Recover the amino acids of this structure.
């Protein structure tokens, strides 16, 4: 009993603690505070040559509400982890990573300075990498490397923004950003936010990150990491608004991401990847909303989306946990009878994603479509947004019809119906948020932000778009049974859409393969080539050549000395033979012998010389 309490204490206490913080922020920070104004507390550490380094903390409607939702979802995920990760050996390590992730996210939320934002930004990237590779296998490692490398691009762009912001004297990014220089800084900031929010062309890492445990996906890929880029762009929107070209670029990228993710989700079969692609489509919708000039509506949709998407991930985790790690939606089926509560929450969160009236997603999604219909956007862009909004109903209904109400094709030995109390409590908490969260946030949000009033015709267009996806789903099912499409063309089309328009191959195989081949070429031609010739191996070769030449010179010199000695002895012998006696001739011979031996042994020459004396 004590060992069980020892293992469950970490996630249980963390969940209760985070839920209490969320309740405190909601009661004292959201409901009872005037949300039309904001407060900023700033500490100045030093100022040098006109550049000051400060630590600001901003308390306004956006930051407090976002932190409240992050703590609520984190607490629910911690409670869910009590049962989902009960067999995990390093459970405390897992919870420490979760708490570090929550701390980094709150640092990013409350501090508007770019330097401190970079600390929270880097913390999110490092901890997310550790969580994605938590299951130690090759698939998790590949997904973690793709995730961390894509996010490092955003880190580099933020560092460049900090470097360029020195000319303004601070890093608050609250000043005017006019001109080419300011527009370039805003462009770097927007592209950096796109890397965290997995916008085109950085979209491949989000479905790959589903290799992480499902509680991590519920926290990281619904309300924290993927929304950090959206929150960063919203926080510095006042500076971005002075550069309409940057917002135009953001709206185009967001609309393409929405369409690409929606089409890919309609062809995906992995349960978690379907939910990840739906998250990606909603992130594209948020970025598009910011680009057309409605950041407060984007914040509202970010909040409501976090509630029902976290619930959707937890429902998927409960199903996967009960079905012994089965994630293929083609095998799932009959869950309404086998796992009634989890399937009910899955259906509720899915229809909230579709924009079902009076659920959380309805309030924010309806406002976004109203803004598109009443705004000054192009007709093609409007068509893309309406199609993307309709596709959310297509893949949600497909998931429900196949996975929940369809026929089960799995094995017969799997034990169903094991829904833990902690799982049920966490799903109940988020279910309340998915049902009444949009309504309660709208009460708070309308007091802080004004919204437009549209005509009845516009409302009817929104209803047609919202429920038009259901008609398309039924029609496509009928056509598939009546008309037989050519198999090769159908397979090619399915492969194109299910691979995110080959975005995974482009950002994974193509870019990384090109980088690896370039690295191999640079290594062979530069590192192991010219740098070795001019450096280590070349220096060693030149030194060896120099030593060989010196050795040859010494050998030639010795031979020259020998020849000179022989010649000198010959001349001396001839002279001695002519003018001196035989005794002197013997002494000269000993001298010559000692000279010859001196080249080989110094002691012998010394002895011979001594004997001659």
């Amino acid at each position: 009993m004590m060992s069980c309490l020892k293992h469950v204490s970490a996630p249980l206490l963390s969940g209760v603690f985070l839920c209490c913080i969320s309740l405190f922020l909601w009661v004292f920070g959201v409901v009872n505070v005037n949300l039309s104004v904001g407060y900023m507390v700033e500490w100045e550490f030093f100022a040098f040559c006109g550049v000051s380094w400060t630590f600001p903390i901003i308390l306004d409607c956006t930051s407090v509400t976002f932190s409240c939702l992050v703590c609520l979802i984190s607490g629910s995920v911690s409670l869910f982890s009590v049962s989902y990760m009960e067999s995990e050996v390093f459970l405390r390590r897992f919870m420490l990573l979760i708490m570090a992730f929550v701390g980094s996210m709150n640092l990013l939320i409350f501090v508007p300075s770019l330097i401190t934002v970079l600390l929270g930004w880097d913390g999110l990237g490092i901890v997310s990498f550790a969580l994605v590779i938590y299951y130690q296998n090759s698939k998790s490692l590949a997904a973690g490397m793709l995730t961390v490398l894509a996010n490092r691009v955003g880190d580099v762009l933020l560092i460049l923004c900090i470097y360029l912001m020195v000319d303004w004297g601070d890093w608050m990014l609250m000043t005017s950003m006019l001109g080419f220089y300011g527009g370039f800084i805003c462009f770097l900031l927007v592209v950096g936010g796109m890397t965290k929010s997995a916008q085109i062309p950085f979209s491949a890492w989000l479905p790959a990150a589903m290799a992480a445990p499902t509680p991590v996906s519920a926290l990281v890929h619904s309300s924290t990491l993927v929304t950090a880029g959206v929150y960063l762009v919203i926080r510095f929107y006042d500076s971005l608004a002075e550069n309409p070209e940057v917002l135009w670029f953001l709206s185009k990228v967001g609309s393409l991401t929405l369409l690409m993710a929606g089409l890919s989700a309609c062809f995906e079969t992995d349960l978690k990847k379907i939910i990840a692609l739906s998250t990606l489509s909603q992130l594209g919708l948020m970025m598009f909303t910011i680009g057309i000039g409605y950041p407060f509506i984007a914040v509202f949709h970010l909040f409501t989306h976090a509630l029902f998407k976290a619930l959707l991930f937890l429902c998927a985790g409960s199903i996967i946990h009960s079905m012994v790690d089965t994630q293929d939606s083609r095998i799932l089926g009959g869950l309404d009878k086998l796992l009634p509560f989890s399937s009910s929450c899955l259906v509720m969160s899915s229809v909230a994603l579709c924009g079902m009236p009076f659920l959380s997603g309805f309030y924010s999604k309806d406002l976004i479509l109203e803004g598109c219909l009443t705004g000054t956007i192009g007709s093609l862009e409007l068509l893309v947004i309406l199609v993307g909004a309709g596709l959310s109903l297509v893949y949600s209904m497909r998931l429900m019809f196949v996975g929940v109400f369809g026929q089960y094709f799995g094995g017969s030995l799997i034990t169903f119906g094991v829904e833990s109390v902690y799982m049920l409590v966490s799903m109940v908490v988020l279910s309340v948020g998915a049902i009444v969260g949009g309504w309660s946030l709208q009460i708070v949000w309308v007091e802080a932000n004004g919204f437009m009033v549209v005509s009845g015709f516009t409302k009817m267009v929104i209803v047609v778009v919202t429920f038009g996806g259901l008609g398309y789903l039924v029609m496509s099912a009928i056509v598939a049974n009546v008309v037989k499409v050519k198999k090769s063309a159908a397979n090619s089309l399915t492969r194109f859409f299910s691979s995110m328009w080959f975005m995974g191959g482009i950002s994974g195989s193509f870019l990384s393969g090109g980088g690896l081949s370039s690295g191999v070429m640079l290594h062979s031609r530069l590192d192991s080539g010219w740098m070795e010739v001019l450096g280590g191996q070349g220096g060693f070769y030149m030194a060896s050549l120099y030593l060989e030449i010196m050795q040859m010179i010494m050998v030639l010199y010795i031979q020259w000395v020998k020849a000179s000695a022989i010649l000198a002895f010959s001349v001396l012998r001839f002279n001695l033979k002519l003018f001196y006696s035989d005794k002197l001739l013997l002494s000269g011979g000993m001298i010559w012998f000692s000279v010859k031996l001196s080249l080989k042994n110094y002691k012998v020459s010394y002895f011979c010389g001594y004997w001659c004396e």
Remarks:
- Confidence is low (pLDDT under 50) at residues 1-7, 482-486, 601-613.
- Residues 549-612 form one domain.
- The longest helix spans residues 536-579.
